[in-house]
Amino acid sequence: GARRKPLALLALVAAAGEAGVARDRACAMLWPDDPPERARRSLAQTVYALRREAGHAELLVGDDTLRTTAACLT
Questions:
Q1: What is the model's pTM?
Q2: What 3-state class would DSSP assign to 22?
Q3: Per-residue b/e over 18-57, b at no fewer than 16 CB within 10 Å?
């Protein structure tokens, strides 16, 4: 359901470690059938929701490449 994409995004970024995940790659993996503009919007909404729910703006950081900070995952 609605929880799958945020959890999948968080797992994807966390697994990538310091290298992070390019936003375009995350879009292609999580919203493969959506047009690029819609996928980018969905990604932005998902990042916002994760940050809000976690209470940490630093949960996912980066403009072109998303990373997470270890402090937010503990």
A1: 0.87
A2: strand
A3: eebbebeebbeebbeeeeeeebbebbeebbeebbeebebe
